Amino acid sequence: MNINITGENAGQGTWRQFGFDIVRILYSLPLSHLLLALLCMSQPGAAQAASIPNNVLDPVTADLAAGRADDAISRLNLSLAAKPGDAEAHNLLCRVYYQEKRWDDAIHQCETAVQLAPLDSGYHLWLGRAYGEKADAIHSIKAYGLAKKVHSEFERAVQLDSKNVDALSDLGEFYTAAPGIVGGGKNKAQAVVQALQPLEPAQAHQLEGILAEKDKNYRVAEAEFKAAVETSHQSPDAWMALASYYARHKQSDQMLEALHAGIDADAKAAKPHGPALVDGAGILSRNHQDLQLAAQLLILYLASPNQSAEAPAFQVHEQLGRLLEQQGDHAGAQQHIEAAAALAHDYHPVAPRAD
Fold first, then answer.
1. Over residues 56-76, mean pLDDT
2. What is the three-class DSSP state of 49?
3. Do residues 35 and 132 make contact, with C-beta atoms less than 8 angstroms apart?
4. Domain residue spans in the chain?
5. pLDDT, tens digit, for every residue of 31-62?
6. Domain at 22-343: CATH code
7. Cα–Cα distance, 355 to 285 (Å, whole number)
């Protein structure tokens, strides 16, 4: 899970679309919301081989990337009817439910995957993420018990695979956001920064930025997010993370400059019109800036062959529907709401929180 703090959907290879927005939690939400596990979908760094052949998994992973939740669930249920002890099928089903924000169902499937394959780093990572989202959803003291489980699962994922960048990133963000009573701590987060540096230096810079931002050292925080842009060779994701930082601090001009740089970087990427555009649209819509551009970015993404499980199409259709409704295009909005339902009929999103 890379440290991209821009998206409003979760998810993801990165936590961007399908995990928790850690800085938004830090500055906007009650204490229980500090205990989330992050959003965005990735192929887990497995310590064990997948328990079903790749040629059987391919259609499911393709469904995940394209946001065809109903199709993925149907395939996985058929597979599990034949092989109920298949850990990878349970993990994939967990990930589909995670996309649909069905936290209890996701937890059940991820717990089963971990029970069946306890040495798989990725399975522990996804279980931690599911626990974290459930903690955010229940808004009660029970979130603290779930936060301890998040901590345990993330640490176990890193113990099993010290080079699992997604697990390191999630663990570092948890350490940064969570209070010490459930395992958080700045020194622990700094240790994760050091572990990330040789693996993914851009993510290490972003985690340093999050730490500095929490300490209200905004000069250092901004410098770290800028360093992430340079270290990543000006990747679209890093630009969007910088734009999101500026958005949180009401620096609209800088936000728009970074966002447009991210759009330009995406257009020049080897796989253009990827999930960074969804991040950009989320930043614009949450900050009530250029909603027409936000809608155009989502349309580009939905027409792209480079869609990702980080930003499943049904979530993007729903997001675009909301934007079009705000702009008075009721027919267009209804069309995209129906498109979302056709891909994931059990997806019932709540209204997004502002930054």
1. 93
2. coil
3. yes
4. 22-343
5. 333 333 322 333 333 333 334 454 677 899 99
6. 1.25.40.10
7. 10
